[in-house]
Amino acid sequence: GERLSKELTDRYREIREKEGINLRSCVVEIQAEVAGSSLVRALFELWKEVVRKGGGQMVCVNYPQDYLDSLTALGILALKGFSLADTKAEAIRKLTRK
């Protein structure tokens, strides 16, 4: 869990810090059939970086449907600036709405 959290957060910071990129929000595309506590923890840590520190939004795409209850039970779905989408196009629309 810690390694995945660090990798996600470090990658976001790396992209954000590149010259000329004003990145506040992000889309995270999940490519897994299962979602355990390490993934939930990593998403929460990234959310803290994107939303709390950066003032952006975070949209998670393709989160495994069978594991949505865990996000709800842990309160992740209720976090300000966190949402789910079925496709990347839908996620981008969510981020570009005024």
Rg value: 13 Å
Distance N to C terminus:
34 Å
What kind of sheet is the major sheet?
3 strands, parallel
Fraction in helix: 40-55%
Estimated structural class: alpha/beta
Number of helices: 4
Record field, number of beta strands: 3
C-alpha geometry: globular
Contiguous low-pLDDT stretches (5 residues minimum) are none
Order of helices and strands: HEHEHEH
Average pLDDT works out at 88
Strand content: 5-15%
Jot down its keywords.
globular; 98 residues; alpha/beta; 4 helices; 3-stranded parallel sheet
Describe this structure in words.
It is a single chain. This protein is an alpha/beta fold and 98 residues long. Helices cover 49% and strands 12% of the residues. The protein has four helices and three strands, in the order αβαβαβα. It has helices at residues 2-17, 37-53, 68-73, 88-96, and strands at 26-29, 58-61, 82-85. A three-stranded parallel sheet has the order 1-2-3. Helix 2 (37-53) links the parallel strand 1 (26-29) and strand 2 (58-61). Helix 1 runs parallel beside helix 2. The protein starts with a helix and ends with a helix. The mean pLDDT is 88.
Give a nutshell description of this structure.
The chain has 98 residues and is an alpha/beta fold.
Topology:
Layout: H1 2-17, E1 26-29, H2 37-53, E2 58-61, H3 68-73, E3 82-85, H4 88-96
Parallel strand pairs: 1-2, 2-3
Helix pairs in contact: 1-2
